[in-house]
Amino acid sequence: MVSLDRRFLIGNFRGAFVVEGKGKNPTESIFRLMLKHQFIDGLLTCSKTGESPKLILKSDEVELPSKNTCFGVNSLLKKAIQKYRFSRLAVYAPACTFDGLNKTQYFGIGCNWTKTAISLKVGFLCPGLLTENAFNAELADIAGKSTGVKRFYFDGGNLFYLLEDGASLKIPLSVHHHYTNSACRYCLNMAAKGTDITCVNLKEEDRVLLIVRSERGWSTLAHLQKTAPGEVLFRKAEEELLASVENFLREKILLNIADIVERVELGLPVPKWNDNKLRKFYRIWNSVDINFEEEVF
Amino acid sequence: MFYRDKLSFEEEDFKLKVGFLHFSSCSGCQVAFLDMFEEAVEILDTVELVYSNMLTKRRDIPRMDVAFVEGALCVEDPHHINLLRELGKKAKMVVAVGGCAAFGGVRRLSCGNQLPQPQHQTFVPITEVDFLKTKVKYAIPGCPPNPSLLYSFLLALLEVNEDFLLPFELMTSSTKASGFDIISEVVNKGFCVGCGTCSTACPTRAISFNRECGKPAFNANLCVHCGSCLAACPQSFKPYPQPVYV
Questions:
Q1: B62/A contact by beta carbon, under 8 A
Q2: Which of B173, B200, B217 corresponds to the end of one domain?
Q3: Within-domain flag for B134
Q4: Hey, which end of chain B has fewer CB within 10 Å, N or C?
Q5: B120 and B188 both lie in a single domain
Q6: Would you state the pLDDT for residue B59?
Q7: Based on the domain organization, do B218 and B145 belong to the same domain?
Q8: Residues 100-119, chain A: which have Cβ within 8 Å of B?
Q9: Dihedral sign (CA A83, B43, A109, A43)
């Protein structure tokens, strides 16, 4: 039985901080500093519009996807690690990308020596990914507008889009749920468990909530503060903010669970949280008898 | 002296005896083993290489605990038939390494009747040979498999890490192992998250990434049936120990 508590929804973490970036996106500032001070030698993510995966090598080129669209990040993995020989790669992507990455690291299938080449995994809290066409259809449905989406953020437990015309639009989750990528409708890991740090976009563009999960994430941020003090400001996150994130996740996951249950009722194959998985591989899904385990490699 | 001899005997006896056997393939899988470099040194004190057509001089095949087999069986080649019989007698466990041995690989595209050996026409992956059915325990996908995968696999074999080995055990019963699997088992069933892992796993670029729909695009003409894409997909089997909520 799934218990929708904080441990399930957000996952285990060491600390949560509201980070301010002095007028700039703090996550971008952190990656810029990490590249500048050679903590990492490359950043694997998507372009700002999220249309295509991107490998960033210089600190002045750092631009993170601002919309909830970020596809194909792992398709550049082999190029980065085997062709260009990056050994301290950071990855910024949604949780599903890290599922692929963690699997590649654990088994070694796909890309060689991924286990030792990744130095930091930063996931963003994902309300479900949309393609460009899905964005257009969703906006037409909710607001009757054809303008583009500039960025997405969370405020008071709700999802908002900042539109290109400057207006903010509250997105009803029940509508948003139907426009997301099909696999996102069965996802139970929207808070990017299995990463070092989870980043939650807030209303102000120069503020984010960073949920630090692993020792690696913790020590990287501590080392960064020592190396470049005052560049980004950390403040312990209020309980209310975490509670609002938790409420958002609970609402979305209830919709996702309803979809999973519907698939079970219809006798359709269901995703990995159930033991009735893809034919020949179905047996191993729930083969590990543990109560709770998250691994960050 | 007597004591030292006894000790060395025990040490030798403790070592896992492994061998590499070569059927119809390019030998790339064996080369991938050699690519482990310094990582291989870590396991050399627990593993003894008793036979390899590339690395050892001996001609007869000794008894071994684990036989790593690369390549597909050519039924018309008497050397292969003899090798198969020897394998059945001498190996306690067989691991099919790479696409050719595990799923047919590039041999699936062969129609035979070609020079220099026009008589060689039938190629069967080791996993489909009933004679070895009880011995073929694991199949490792890839063309060739990554050295890091082979290293992790050897470690898991030595540590009897069943959680790691289980997917490879299930892969012995897989027969399709192509990009069609990704489309039919993952994309068509609504599980594709668009992460691009299958695309990076493909050694021949048969799977590219369709940016408009955020899903993989498959070119069947380039696929060599190595099984990497489905094995790498995070939606095909669990990526790492998953939380079970009670």
A1: no
A2: B173
A3: yes
A4: N
A5: no
A6: 85
A7: no
A8: 100-104, 106-115
A9: negative
Q: Residue B196 and residue A100: Cβ atoms within 8 Å? A: yes
Q: Is B49 in the same domain as B81?
A: yes
The CATH number assigned to the domain holding B223 equals 3.30.70.20
* Chain A: closest CA distance from residue B124 (Å): 21
- Is some CB atom of chain A closer than 8 A to the CB atom of B213? yes
pLDDT for B32-63, tens place per residue?
988 876 777 777 788 888 999 888 888 899 99
pTM score = 0.87
Q: Domains of chain A: which residue ranges?
A: 6-272
Which of B173, B189, B207 lies at the terminal end of a domain, its last residue? Answer: B173
Q: Is residue A113 within 8 Å of A71, Cβ to Cβ?
A: no
Cβ contacts (< 8 Å) between B164 and chain A: which residues?
Answer: 106-107
Burial A23-51 (b: 16+ CB within 10 A, else e): eebbbbbbbbbbbeeebbbbbbbbeebbb
Helix (H) or strand (E) holding B74: strand B73-74
Same domain, B10 and B88: yes
Residue A72 has pLDDT above 60, yes or no: yes
Residue A90 tokens read as 């950071």
Residue B126 neighbours by CB distance under 10 Å: 30
Q: Which pLDDT value is given to residue A272?
A: 60
Contact B244 A187 (CB under 8 A): no
Q: A8 and B235 in contact by Cβ < 8 A? A: no
Shared domain for B31 and B117, answered yes or no, is: yes
Question: How many structural domains does chain B have?
Answer: 2
Residue A102 CB neighbours (<10 A): 22
A266 touches chain B (CB under 8 A): no
pLDDT tens string B134-146? 899 999 999 999 8
List the structure tokens of B14. 């403790």
Interface test mutation site (partner A, options B138, B149, B197, max chain A beta carbons within 10 A): B197
- In tens, the pLDDT along B85-110 reads 999 999 999 999 999 999 888 888 88
Q: Does A146 touch chain B (CB under 8 A)?
A: no
Q: Is residue B73 part of a domain?
A: yes
Asked if residue B239 belongs to a domain, the reply is no
Predicted confidence band of residue A108 (pLDDT cuts 50, 70, 90) = confident
Residue B7's domain spans which residues? 2-173
* CA–CA separation, B133 and B144 (whole Å): 23
Q: Does B235 touch chain A (CB under 8 A)?
A: yes
B241 falls within a domain: no
Average pLDDT, chain A: 86
Residues 134-193 of B with CB under 8 A from A: 141-142, 145-153, 163-164, 166-167, 170-171, 173-174, 185-186, 189-193
Q: Which residues of A touch B145 (CB under 8 A)?
A: 109
* DSSP codes joined into one string, B13-70: HHSEEEEEEE-BS-SHHHHHHHTTTHHHHHHHTTEEEEEETTT----S---EEEEEEE
Find the CB nearest B192 among A183, A286, A292: A183
Same domain? For B33 and B105 the reply is yes
Q: Are residues B159 and B90 part of one domain?
A: yes
